[in-house]
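Methods — Computational structure assignment.
A single polypeptide chain was analysed. Its primary sequence is given first, followed by the predicted tertiary structure written as structure tokens.
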Amino acid sequence: MPGVAPYLALLILHVLAAAVTVGATVAYAVSIALAERQPEHLAFTIRAVRASDRIVAIPAYLLTFVTGVWLAASAGIPFERFWMAASIVIYVVVLTVGFGVFGPVVRRELDALERGGVADREYLRLRTQAFVLAWSTVAALALMTALMVAKPS
């Protein structure tokens, strides 16, 4: 293991990045749910969430991964341990679904909203998908955080 001070600094950076990741994901879901109460602000809110995702959450996701791998390697923690392997699998699934499914759903949701408004059938269908994806992501991140903290065998 490296010196205590550099390791501790890396650990703090990792925890802060993870907190930003989880916090941003929850904030996005809540912000959109609140904006649905005032539909005239909904398109702006979705665009703001997408921009914030690119500027804040995605870099935090990546920083969390890089610092986590670095910490594990520095401490000699085997990647085969259940909690580590499960967390990596969850991370890969969240990122893959985020880029491959969630992002495109939100883009189409925004297009449908701007075309037909909140009563548009396509918007409502995509809104339901985005809602399920958002809260599934929150649940996956909560599970990953629990695994990282508890470190079960």
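Note: The chain has a mean pLDDT of 94.
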